Amino acid sequence: MTSHTTSSNIDNVLHETRVIEPPAQFAAAANLSREDYERLYRQSLDDPDTFWAEVAGELTWMQPWTQVLDWQEPHVKWFVGGQTNIAYNALDRQVALGRGDKRAFIWEGEDGEVRTFTYAELLREVKRAANMLISLGVQSGDRVTLYLPLIPEAAIAMLACARIGAVHSVVFGGFSVSALSDRLNDAQSKLLITADAGYRKGALVPLKANADAAAQNVPSLEHMLVVCRADCDAAMQPGRDVWWHDALAAASDGHQAASLDSEHPLFILYTSGSTGKPKGVLHTTGGYMVAASMTMQTAFDLKEDDVFWCTADVGWVTGHSYTVYGPLLRGATAVMYEGAPNHPDWGRFWQIVEKHKVSILYTAPTAIRSFMRQGDGYPNRSDLSSLRLLGSVGEPINPEAWMWYFRVIGGERCPVIDTWWQTETGTIMLTTLPGAFPGKPGSAGLPMFGVEPAIVTREGTELGPDEGGYLIIKRPWPSMLRTVYGDDERYRKTYWGEIPHVYFAGDGARRDADGYITVVGRVDDVLNVSGHRLGTMEIESVLVAHPSVSEAAVVGRPDDLKGEGVVAFVTPQSGYVLDPAAIRAHITREIGALARPDAIVVADALPKTRSGKIMRRFLRQIAAGKEIQGDTSTLEDPSVLERLQAADLL
Ligand code: WT7
Predict the structure, then answer these.
(1) CATH of the domain at 178
(2) What DSSP designation does 608 have?
(3) Pairing of the two strands 203-205 and 198-200
(4) Residue 528, ligand 1, Cβ within 6 A
(5) Is 473 in the pocket of ligand 1 (CB under 6 A)?
(6) Best substitution site from 281, 283, 480, 528 to test ligand 1's pocket, by max atoms within 8 Å of Cβ?
(7) Structure pTM?
(8) Do 596 and 532 reside in the same domain of the chain?
(9) Which of 72, 83, 225, 560 is deepest in the core (most CB within 10 A)?
(10) For residue 312, how far is the Cα from the chain centroid?
């Protein structure tokens, strides 16, 4: 496969006309037909109470709700008055339904180690872990931060928190000391669960050392639980630190799941926004559980004998909803893989598919593009015949990558679903039900049940077919975020205040005559790098904190592999020489490697208006190597642009 330019990708997205019908065999056995979708979708909008009551009724409630929805914009309650427990529904309920001996998780370590848990085994572990948390003083409503590799203990810890009503906040293991410290403080976590180390491409990531450094200025923190993933060689602080395996062995495996209010907080997950500080997106119990279960069943056409592999780490929302909660809520067998897709080589994913007979694979376009670049040889070396459905998530998928995924990985037998959603939406919002509708490469597709999207102007006027505008959602849905933790005003402004009375997604999109929505990308100062969200302001504020940097502006530029790359324009502090290596190390230290600039441009000045506003539009054009377009007359000094264009990308 030769590499292709992004401009041709954009061109393809704009002019893509291919329509791929669901493979006949798949369609014949699908859970839902086109007629089912149309009927249920109508019902979900016209009579939401009946629709959601039926869906929620498939799960166990310790106390039934009295009202399906209570909407006091911008605050919502779902299944009002109901009491339930998501961990109970994920585990105890499956055992009660006779799935005790069915495999819940198949975990594969980067080093090839495999651990499996049946539903009964996982339940026992989670009960033990729940008692362990209680013995460390964790109570319902307390926040617990997880900073772990993708190991079974991560899922066990999440489920144990949910079981006792503690609120988990998972921080991706690739995040830095200060990112972890900020999140611990924002959530005022009492407990941090980490590991001695994690594996990444054969090397050890020093999680415990990072955790120690991060914990130095977190007054709320009482204990640290440490999982031994590598060699158990970690400095333990007496009184504060406890080994997971010691505490777990001491804990009883008798525990009854807490009966929690439907709106009891379930988790906080931090994500980047257009202003400096990451937002703690808060999700609650009942609505999230119902939507995770429903989308798992419908979007993925789940069957009892499926082996479902979502490749996302639990540090991201995809890992919450489709690596852990979704599959377990439906009693599926889920695969978890700890490591990198190219360790020891680019055939690893395909070996995992063959070895564990994965039938549904859910991964990100950035991974698909990387695989595609390595050619067909790696996938062709493995038997991929167990696969029956493929999913994509995290960023727009270019039609070339879509077709490659369909042809080479799916053997033209497996539908491809492109799923659009966000940390804030909790679960899948747009996709095409795989057996019911054709796929259009590059287009996410139709709304899920209960989701009422529209494409509008900045003023909120609805646009017609094929007109580009802002993607909004016109009514609340069960798994939507409830607030920004500790900052309800930010919640109100960001999501319900940009365009009055609708949810503002922050994405640009358009809808075709068939109703398929194509999401083209963010419209705010948020970048999507390899499917991960990064706020440009967040990176800028870290840059200007470096002694050698005076001013900084960060923009994205199209990147064939990562979707978007980070370009930082920096001006030096007088008396300093800017060292790109030092700048990159600084970003890695302060945020994490995923925010490291792909290119740095050192400049004597940035393009500003007379009132001092940086014109990022021009910086984006320069970063992409394009001609300057647009009115430069408002710039205080237009010659800055020429100097920036002539500058080296370092
Ligand atoms: C942003 C949300 C959904 C879990 C992973 C990312 C972009 C996500 C798609 C898609 C086009 C997509 C959007 C969105 N995005 N999926 N299928 N097609 N764009 O969650 O980190 O909260 O990022 O990812 O821009 O707003 P997230």
Answers:
(1) 3.40.50.980
(2) B
(3) antiparallel
(4) yes
(5) no
(6) 528
(7) 0.94
(8) yes
(9) 225
(10) 8
Whether the CB-CB separation of 178 and 590 falls below 8 Å is answered with: yes
Closest-CA residue to 418 (of 408, 406, 409) = 406
Torsion sign (Cα): 172, 186, 85, 362: negative
395 annotated ligand binder: yes
Q: Give distance in angstroms: CA of 294 to centre of ligand 1.
A: 20
Q: ipTM of the assembly?
A: 0.99
Q: What is the pLDDT of residues 632-641, one digit of tens each?
A: 988 989 999 9
126 and 236 belong to one structural domain? yes
Give the separation between CA 46 and CA 155, rounded to whole angstroms: 37
Tell me the CA–centroid distance for residue 523 and ligand 1, in Å: 12
Final residue belonging to a domain, choices 212, 243, 260: 260
Q: List the CATH number of the domain containing 506.
A: 2.30.38.10
Kindly report the protein residue whose alpha carbon is nearest to atom 19 of ligand 1. Answer: 395
The structure tokens listed for 382 are 């493995």
Ligand 1 touching residue 83 (CB < 6 A): no
Owning domain of residue 604:
526-646
201-226 pLDDT, tens per residue? 999 999 999 999 999 999 999 999 99
Dist. CA 395 → ligand 1 center (Å)? 5
Would residue 95 count as lying in a domain? no
Residues 478 and 82 sit within 8 Å (Cβ to Cβ): no
